[in-house]
Amino acid sequence: MSAVSALSRGKTVLILESNDKPGLKILISGGGRCNFTNLYASPEAYVSGNPHFCKSALKQFTQHDFISLVEEDGIAYYEKTLGQLFCEHSSKEILDLLLRRIRKLGGTLKTKVHLHKVEKEKKNIFYAHAENESYRAKNIIVACGGLSFPQLGATDFGYKLAKHFGHSITKLDPALDGFVFAEKEKKYFSSLSGISLETRVSCNSKHFEENILFTHIGISGPSILKASLYWHKGDEVCIDFLPKIKNLREYLDEKRKSHPKKMVFSLFSQDLPDRFLEKLFAYGKVKNKILTELTKQDMQLLETLLKTFRFTPKSCIGYKKAEITRGGVDTKDISSQTMESRLVPGLYFVGEVVDVSGLLGGYNFQWAWSSGWVAGKNV
Length: 379
Prior knowledge:
By secondary structure, the chain is of the alpha+beta class. The chain has helices spanning about 1-5, 25-30, 55-60, 65-70, 90-105, 155-165, 185-190, 220-230, 250-260, 265-270, 275-285, 295-305, 365-379; strands spanning about 15, 35-40, 45, 75-80, 85, 110, 115-120, 125-130, 135, 140, 175, 180, 195-200, 200-205, 205-210, 210-215, 220, 235-240, 310, 315, 325, 345-350, 355-360. The longest helix has 16 residues, at about 365-379.
């Protein structure tokens, strides 16, 4: 995106790509259909040490600007849920959209280039050194991404380069990732692998009402991945397994009157899988009673288990599965208007390498398009 933006202004652009082929994360995204943006992309969907930093870039190049490029190329797309836009056919269409423009505008792409050092020498020229050759330029845009998906070539090179030029890096963590259960939860719930439930997940005052998915080591699914963006080690996560029932006490009182002989397990098995209920009741030491026999303590326990189930994850799964890396090059030394370093003129940082992390659902691609376009506009 930076290349497209810069080339359209008549700049000479060379893209140095370490992989054999470009755009591997684009190709695998969205199950191969690329969730390329979100209709509701706004600053509120991003986490950063400076929550205002992303505003300028998102305003200068919006989701609607990228949608226009997609429509101009005749790429069929659809809205899945919550504003998430996907290609109808293949992620490759988004990659081709960018590569075609780069070729048309005269840009050069070199693959299999493994840089080991970037320096700024006399006359304000940058030199990027690879094993057998060096490249020089007046401006350098760092678009290396984060640590997520090392199997696709992700490295810490962008962070090392930033440090070399005096920039600081905020704390890095895997995010948009599943959670690993602590031993107690793992003991009861690891056998539920594959079970999916519609829930409301809360973490640090953020709430997400989508499905969760139990795995053999913990818990995943869209609402968990979103919650992980706001989770830090030691924080609790709260799950409401019955989000459609607003007041469980009132619900139980009503059922006790209409179905006095019904068993507790039978009542909740209408909304939740038997396997899950068995494990949850065993975890909470809940006895399967007739509704009319429930005490106040029983109802309190049911409310705690079903509406405010709290657990402290052992960890996230890690960078191999995490969609993104939270944290990055500290925004205090980057211009939000241009993405240029305040410490080193001609050096720019864009996308995931910067301390701006978006929610699941196309937000991180939009940050890449917006920040990339802004840097290309200003080199």
